[in-house]
Specification:
With 211 residues, this protein is of the alpha+beta class. It has two domains: 111 residues, no CATH class; 79 residues, Nonspecific Lipid-transfer Protein, Chain A, CATH 3.30.1050. The chain is built from ten helices and four strands; from the N terminus they run ααααααααβββαβα. α2 crosses α5. It starts with a helix and ends in a 5-residue tail after the last helix. The mean pLDDT is 93. This is TIGR03085 family metal-binding protein.
Length: 211
Amino acid sequence: MTHTRAERAALCDLLDDLGPDAPTLCEGWTTADLTAHLVLRERRPDAMGGIAVKALAPYTASVQEGLKARHPYPELVDLVRQGPPKWTPYGFVPGADELVNTVEMFVHHEDVRRARPGWEPRELPAGLDDVLWKRLRTMARVFFRRSPVGVVLRRTNGEKVAGRMAEPAVVVTGDAQELLLLAFGRQAHARVTYEGDPGAVARLREARLGM
């Protein structure tokens, strides 16, 4: 089983267990909202633009609400569990699901896990932490483009990548999964350590990061 499929299956099992009204780390979203978002990403390419483009966000939000209205929550979860249909880019292009959705499924799995009390980081399957680090290295400049300070990400094994070249700079250390969650704007729930000027650290911890 690929990492993407394993994360997808584990996320869907958790969504089934928690039901539609559980909190997530996505501000203002319940598990029903998050599930509808995932269905939209994979089955409504016409509405994906609003995920990244503010001007298109109202249409994306209306489609997401429509999905919630038309499909009972268990059906939405099942649609996510099925994965992207063959006629969509993620289903049609060989390797696209694994390339794009490994990170998507991992981050949203943690969005649900870490919104619950008593959570602890998972011990990831062999190889997944390396995959997350590879994706992070490729996209670090994008994730930290809005950072108000310079950022250097340092994996616990010593590997480094620059998120943003600027002064003052903050060095952030952690496992790849924790650094990735930081990069996606989950600073409050990422188990990392910060080195640098206290003011710069505070600004980074409050910055709006991610795609």
